[in-house]
Design goal:
By secondary structure, this protein is of the alpha/beta class. The chain contains 15 helices and 14 strands. The chain has two domains: 5-154 and 282-354, D-Maltodextrin-Binding Protein, domain 2; 165-280 and 361-373, D-Maltodextrin-Binding Protein, domain 2. Strands 1, 2, 3, 6, 12, 13 and 14 form a seven-stranded mixed sheet that branches.
Length: 375
């Protein structure tokens, strides 16, 4: 998958926009948001918008402004995996949520499921500011309709404690070294299956082949992961769990998220991240409105707000993820743009095999469950 020389150019060109234009854009955003929210809030005294999203996507630092402008309350539940999201929606909980943030591995399936509503892009004026490479992808399109707006994207890197390594780890394969017994953590997610497939070289010729493994290949992945189990202290399900494992010095390395790196840096811990030589998987997260939502006007207002340049910059501040709106770069410092790889975005994304629909997802899940159950 390629994201993008023209994406990089848009980021860099956005930096040349004059401050006056940025301020005028922000004023227009607030006026438009207030108008949309006025319409949606007239129906209820204090409407509540319910979200089911990844950690970091409902932080008060950027949602308080939306709540104040729209005179509403936003409540959020957090998911630990794409499978958890799908299970909740299919299990009858779809009516409990107005907005969800599926990743690229299940976004296509959801677009065809009837669980999410097709979007009227005329109600999302900031959609035109998003990267054309992101909006041009078929992930959330079905029968000529669009079911989601790109929010952010990023990798699943190798996180490590600098104080525990004489030399920074550069490959996933190093994690199998017996000297790391009981010192590692992995994500309780199919991403761990994909990682083992990369270690075994199944994506060497075609990186996306890790999403279409045969039974024989999956058996090899299973054996490889079982061999790693002595080194695994704990599997993590939420970013907060992994953050605590590092803070308590229970682990020295893990597959993680930039969000965790960001949180640990703010806590003063010497945690760094690396994209190993084998590459890593990554994701493109979208915002979708559920078909069962009774607050669709307010949900549209939230989608429009969340993809604005200002909210995108604030989202990156919290998560360390890369914004879908190139204009957010104009609001960042040079250091932040560098840390987000906005100055080498094309080379950076080449190291990431972005999640996509897995035709045999049930079989992958079966293999992962067998790994976890093994002694």
């Amino acid at each position: 998958m390629s994201f993008l020389r023209d994406f990089e150019e848009r980021y860099l060109s956005s930096l040349r926009r004059k401050t006056l234009r940025t301020l005028r854009g922000r004023s227009f955003l607030l006026i438009a948001l207030a108008a949309i929210c006025f319409v949606s809030s007239c129906r209820k005294a204090t409407p509540t918008l319910s979200l089911l999203v990844w950690e970091g996507y409902a932080d008060p630092s950027f949602l308080q402004e939306f709540e104040a402008t729209c005179h509403c309350k936003v409540v959020a539940a957090y998911m630990g995996s794409s499978d958890e999201l799908v299970a909740k929606l299919r299990g009858g909980a779809a009516s409990n949520y107005d907005v969800i943030s599926p990743s690229s591995d299940v976004a296509t399936m959801l677009s065809r499921s009837g669980l999410v509503a097709p979007l009227d892009l005329a109600k999302i004026p900031n959609y035109s500011q998003l990267s054309p490479k992101l909006t041009g992808m078929p992930l959330v399109k079905n029968d000529g309709k669009v079911y989601g707006v790109p929010l952010t994207w990023g990798p699943n890197p190798l996180l490590y404690d600098k104080t525990a390594f004489v030399k920074a780890p550069t490959t996933w394969a190093e994690l199998w070294d017996p000297k790391y017994k009981d010192k590692l953590s992995l994500w309780d997610d199919l991403s761990t299956v994909y990682m083992a497939a990369q270690v075994l070289g199944f994506g060497k010729q075609d990186p996306s082949a890790i999403y279409t493994l045969s039974d024989a290949q999956l058996d090899q992945v299973k054996a490889k992961l079982i061999a790693l189990k002595p080194n695994i202290r704990k599997l993590w399900s939420t970013g907060g769990e992994l953050t605590n494992l590092f803070q308590n010095h229970e682990v020295i390395a893990a597959m993680g998220w930039p969000l965790v790196t960001n949180q640990l840096h703010k806590a003063g811990l010497p945690i760094e991240e690396e994209i190993p030589a084998e590459g890593t998987t990554g994701w493109i997260d979208h915002l979708m409105i559920t078909s069962a939502s009774e607050n669709k006007d307010l949900a549209y207002a939230l989608l429009n707000y969340m993809i604005s340049a200002r909210a995108q910059k604030q989202l990156s501040d919290v998560t360390g993820y890369i914004p879908a709106n190139p204009q957010a770069a104009a609001l960042m410092t040079a250091d932040q743009r560098h840390d987000l790889h906005l100055d080498d975005i094309d080379d950076y994304q080449k190291q990431i095999v972005f999640w996509q629909d897995v035709p045999r997802r049930t079989k992958y899940t079966e293999i992962w469950n067998e790994v976890k159950a093994s002694q």
